[in-house]
Design goal:
This protein is an alpha+beta fold and 470 residues long. Helix content is 11%, strand content 27%. The longest helix is centred in the middle third of the chain and has 14 residues. The chain binds 2-acetamido-2-deoxy-beta-D-glucopyranose (7 copies) and fe (ii) ion. InterPro entries: Calcineurin-like_PHP, FN3_dom, Metallo-depent_PP-like, MPP_PAP, PAPs-like, PAPs_C, PAPs_N, Purple_acid_Pase-like_N.
Amino acid sequence: MGTGRISFSATCAVVLLGLIMNSSALHCNRGITSSFIRVSSPSVDMPFDSDVFQVPPGYNAPQQVHITQGDHVGQAMIVSWVTPDEPGSSLVTYWPKKSKEKYVAEGYYLTYNYYNYTSGFIHHCTIPNLKYNTKYYYEVGDGNVTRKFWFRTAPPVGPDVPYTFGLIGDLGQTYDSNKTLTHYEQSPLKGKTVLYVGDLSYADDWPFHDNVKWDTWGRFTERSVAYQPWIWTAGNHEIDFEPLLGETVPFKPYSSRYHVPYNSSGSTAPFWYSIKRASAYIIVLSSYSAYGKYTPQYTWLEQELPKVDRTETPWLIVLVHSPWYNSYNYHYMEGETMRVMFESWFIQYNVDVVFAGHVHAYERSKRISNNAYNITNGLCTPVSNKFSPVYITIGDGGNIEGLATNMTEPQPSYSAFRESSFGHGMFSIKNRTHAYFSWNRNQDGYAVEADSLWFHNRYWYPTTETTISI
Ligand SMILES: *[C@@H]1O[C@H](CO)[C@@H](O)[C@H](O)[C@H]1NC(C)=O
Ligand SMILES: *[C@@H]1O[C@H](CO)[C@@H](O)[C@H](O)[C@H]1NC(C)=O
Ligand SMILES: *[C@@H]1O[C@H](CO)[C@@H](O)[C@H](O)[C@H]1NC(C)=O
Ligand SMILES: *[C@@H]1O[C@H](CO)[C@@H](O)[C@H](O)[C@H]1NC(C)=O
Ligand SMILES: *[C@@H]1O[C@H](CO)[C@@H](O)[C@H](O)[C@H]1NC(C)=O
Ligand SMILES: *[C@@H]1O[C@H](CO)[C@@H](O)[C@H](O)[C@H]1NC(C)=O
Ligand SMILES: *[C@@H]1O[C@H](CO)[C@@H](O)[C@H](O)[C@H]1NC(C)=O
Ligand SMILES: [Fe+2]
């Protein structure tokens, strides 16, 4: 239940969003810096023998089971898991609820070495040709130990399909991480798919990038991600580039363990790709892969944005790890070079919302742009722009590095709401014109919304939104 007192240092009660067409100065010069007082306690990793890290019983029992969308439209699922002792089977047995018949899909396994760590047998299996909006059971393992899970496929892609996405970033594996995950699971809004904005296990914060931490993170998150897809974004803690350890292949542990359907969106690398899910078109970008002009990611995005058909998928959502608009004194302006490359495209193609992580706090921007600057004209202040996305930083999952508490002062006019607390978000699409975003902080009850906004779709209903901040 709600703890602490909530008050605001806001100078304007009503935040005027995009009232004026296109480029105009911001009317309201102060956003809200929440003065919520939290009990501050250090974020410490849960010990190795914690309940959440328990190894499932039985010889070679599959562990770290996780699923993600396996194609462009939501009719396939990638199932991944690890067997610790021997390869075992890479088959997934699956069947729709109530079906008498069972089906089998065949995957494969891989292993990798990192410094002196050798991974278990990491299996990846794509289940194709699934029916939409259907509950499936699936089973992995063989011999004496099989484990059974289930998932529900997304509804068919279409413009008015309601769907609720959870938003989690920078989770790690501390007691706070566990609270964030629990709050997501217990939310009455019932998220159906997680949009994960990067930085998973934080193994690299440990000596020799202790890859056992990747395994414990896999076991910790299984209770959610074995049952609903998490859509992955690569963060800086996934790079694991460490020449001093002889590790010079970026993203080796991450890309060995977490597969994504990049090929089905014409991408040539797993770090940038897109999917359609229900009424949303989701574009995942990589802050840590080249994005300058002529690079593969740049070329892909340039060709990708015109493909988005807003009459089919009204909601255009972008995930990227490093935020483009961030008023904390952490990672300040790290997202700037990518913003310079891509911001004008996001305005041109009316992106609805950009979710980022990296900064361990919460922040929501107004609809603003800052792309008029051309070296000599001095036009380098963010301005209201009704065709711009809202930028939301949701890197507040609760990892070992702790909260970002130090903010730039005064709060910049583009920043609508910011608070340094752990939590998660929900983006609930209602129809082609309306989606409801809300942010829950871990100190509150599961149903409490510390910040929220009714989104108006930028293609179908590009009108003023009213901020509701309680
Ligand atoms: C890896 O090397 C480190 C440092 O020498 C050592 O502490 C650790 O126990 C080793 N781990 C394995 C799995 O050999
Ligand atoms: C099942 O376990 C028993 C005892 O550990 C073992 O002898 C047997 O080979 C296992 N069966 C399979 C199919 O793995
Ligand atoms: C993690 O959260 C779950 C669900 O709330 C709880 O059952 C479990 O005991 C927690 N574990 C730790 C180590 O906090
Ligand atoms: C990758 O996608 C292309 C079409 O986009 C397809 O022709 C090709 O077979 C796919 N490759 C793999 C390995 O799935
Ligand atoms: C830069 O912007 C100014 C003012 O908008 C304009 O006059 C000038 O031509 C621009 N320079 C270039 C190189 O486009
Ligand atoms: C906050 O960040 C600024 C800029 O990096 C720094 O000068 C200041 O000392 C920091 N304040 C605290 C309390 O850490
Ligand atoms: C779309 O959803 C919003 C919010 O629930 C609702 O107010 C509006 O009437 C809906 N539009 C249509 C056409 O149903
Ligand atoms: Fe990060």
